[in-house]
Amino acid sequence: xxxxxxxxxxxxxxxxxxxxxxxxxxxxxxxxxxxxxxxxxxxxxxxxxxxxxxxxxxxxxxxxxxxxxxxxxxxxxxxxxxxxxxxxxxxxxxxxxxxxxxxxxxxxxxxxxxxxxxxxxxxxxxxxxxxxxxxxxxxxxxxxxxxxxxxxxxxxxxxxxxxxxxxxxxxxxxxxxxxxxxxxxxxxxxxxxxxxxxxxxxxxxxxxxxxxxxxxxxxxxxxxxxxxxxxxxxxxxxxxxxxxxxxxxxxxxxxxxxxxxxxxxxxxxxxxxxxxxxxxxxxxxxxxxxxxxxxxxxxxxxxxxxxxxxxxxxxxxxxxxxxxxxxxxxxxxxxxxxxxxxxxxxxxxxxxxxxxxxxxxxx
Length: 363
Hints:
This protein is an alpha/beta fold. The protein has helices spanning 35-45, 59-69, 87-92, 115-125, 192-202, 222-236; strands at 4-9, 29-30, 33-34, 50-55, 75-80, 102-106, 110-113, 129-135, 143-148, 151-157, 168-176, 207-211, 214-217, 245-246, 249-251, 256-257, 262-264, 267-269, 274-275, 280-282, 285-286, 291-292, 297-299, 302-303, 308-309, 314-316, 319-320, 325-326, 331-333, 336-337, 342-343, 348-350, 353-354, 360-361. The chain folds into 2 domains: 4-217, Alpha-Beta Complex (Spore Coat Polysaccharide Biosynthesis Protein SpsA, Chain A), CATH 3.90.550; 222-361, Hexapeptide repeat proteins (UDP N-Acetylglucosamine Acyltransferase, domain 1), CATH 2.160.10.10. Helix content is 18%, strand content 33%. The relative contact order is 0.11.
């Protein structure tokens, strides 16, 4: 028997719209790589080469993206859900391919853990299920867990203000023995955190708890996506990558720059990027074939492939998708722009999401 990994990748990513109208959430780039690749890599480093990926929304795009980016000796089987089956229900559908201990992770959450250490804890615990936890400052948007003597004794989903009894949250990464699959009903939507885990605790089943060692971030909102790009660039980047830069950068190819360009890390720079005279980039991800004019300022933002930003424009805390044109002297803050938009000269865009692929915006 070989240890298998199951990656849940069927969600619609509604909180990331309009980005997820065109890109499945697990394929959204983070520091130059699809989000799902970080989890696939962590599995690979621990010796897990056989993967099952459960998918539904935009499954054809997801399958193509995974096959293009996986390790050559990783074996991937896709389980396509005709109707949403829930997190546990989707895994239940794969049980004919499970013959031993398996790992479950979420492909649309940034997870870059030391799986080897988690597996060791699971084996020593003799539990049938291990849940990986991480600490956060604000647990109100997550499922929290109370731990006693290394085991989880209570769960609460998204606690109200003042009701949180723990800052340890469920990361969506589990190690499970195959017997647990019998506890998941077939033919109906069923959820790990909301249904299965509380039922197991009620029935006296031991749930081992491990605090994960590594990077984790729920990339559910645009500002989280921006933070994820910065986090992984800080983790994997290098200093002094480009002349007159500060902080850590990942540069796939040295950008073509004019005089007085400033790049402050953590920032990601893709291939065939050009940056005009006097422009500055700080804490941002600039993807392939992006053309940046003179005296442009980009701060804490993500600029996707083949976008053009013309002279004098300023972009802060925003996600700009591919093939957009930002004309001269525009200001964009706290916003998300879908692909193939044209923003006219002097436009000011604050706190909005624009998602018409054919619109010619003048504001």
